[in-house]
Amino acid sequence: MPDDTHTDPSEVREIRINPVVPAESVLVATARSMRPKKAEELAPRDTRKHVETCPFCRGNEHKTPPAILTWPETGDWQIRMVENLYPVLGDDRSQAGFAFGLQQTIDGYGRHEVIIDHFEHGIAVHEMAEPHLAALFGVYQARMRQLFESDPRLKYVLVFKNFGPAAGASIPHTHSQVIAMPVVPENVDAEVKNSAAHYAKHHHCIFCALIDEALTFEATIYDRVSGAVRRKINVGQYVVERGEKFIAIKPFASRYEWEVHILPLAHQADYLDVNGEDLADLARVMKRTMARLDAVIGGAQYNFFLHSVPHDSQQQAHAPSYHWHLEICPRTSIPTGFELGSGLFVNTVNPEQAAERLRAVELQDGP
Ligand SMILES: [Zn+2]
Ligand SMILES: [Zn+2]
Ligand SMILES: [Zn+2]
């Protein structure tokens, strides 16, 4: 926390540039007048254990397309994967992409699948047992691998989760989605290209550098005129949770108030390269991070998504410079016209203070 005595550290108003994607900047403005819609206006999430009419609950398997895979493979399923009934991309059409003047389309070829994360209808991630979460991360990996191997046209497999109505989850039963596509999403592409440019210039991975900074770096900023300490930044303050193999960090330029990223501590570009044992540590860091978020926000509703190196012709070239990660973006407010119109995210909670509050949560150790 800044130890500046001249101004209230809770009153911050500055534009922070995302170090990986500089085009993405955030206005951190903690003044009340900037505050968009508050959390209490968001719809509550469904916390029931079993819902008779829910197509994703056990006993209603006939209401979904047949399972692509289940875990465990025999006996009562705990995780179940099916085709999406309303896919945004599908493989059943042959129409080619067309270009008309400045307006271009690419054929909507791909796959869209749903993973029912848990047989319990409204269970939150931090309530799932660690071995269950590790199995879920394993299912993500197994399906990504199968999809990439099934069709060389697929360049990217996006795994994401919308949890709670505030995060756009249309079915309340806890689930994740997998979208395999023939193009690399623009935000991933920007990360990949910018981190490659950073690597060409500095010969190291920018994500590894950010982790090192988070673990070790300290900086003091002096006033240029008086020489007085204007601000002291202890970058270790961005660490939210640390495991043996993974770390959870509050990004300096967080777009969302409670945004947290989880990354492998050792350099790794492709999520497919995580070995089975390490998934247990990922599950532990994830569970603890989500428990912290849930305790601070009070029933976190969020999106999370997995960013991994694209499987395109540049995959090998990007292996040393890109670093896969999980971005967790809790939804505590609704974007305002200012944000949509300017493209500038507004964050009303100082990221340093947010990280401190997340770290301060006392967690009970459990499986
Ligand atoms: Zn259900
Ligand atoms: Zn790295
Ligand atoms: Zn990312």
- How many domains in all? 1
Number of helices: 7
Total strands: 17
Determine and state the CATH class: Alpha Beta
Low-confidence blocks of residues:
1-6
Give the helix level as a range of percent: 10-25%
The fourth-level CATH homologous superfamily is HIT-like
What can you see in these coordinates?
The chain has helices spanning 130-150, 186-202, 206-216, 276-297, 315-318, 337-342, 351-360; strands spanning 13-17, 25-29, 67-71, 79-83, 99-100, 103-104, 111-116, 156-163, 175-181, 218-222, 229-234, 239-242, 246-249, 260-264, 302-307, 325-330, 345-347. The chain starts with 12 loop residues before the first strand and ends in a 7-residue tail after the last helix. α1 packs across α4. A 10-stranded antiparallel beta sheet has the order 3-4-7-9-8-15-16-14-13-12, with helices on both faces. The protein has a 3-stranded mixed beta sheet with strand order 1-2-17. It has a single domain, classed as 2-Layer Sandwich (HIT family, subunit A), CATH 3.30.428.10. It has 367 residues and is of the alpha+beta class. The protein binds zinc ion (3 copies).
Labels describing this entry:
alpha+beta, three-stranded mixed beta sheet, disordered N terminus, ten-stranded antiparallel beta sheet, 17 strands, binds zinc ion, HIT family, subunit A
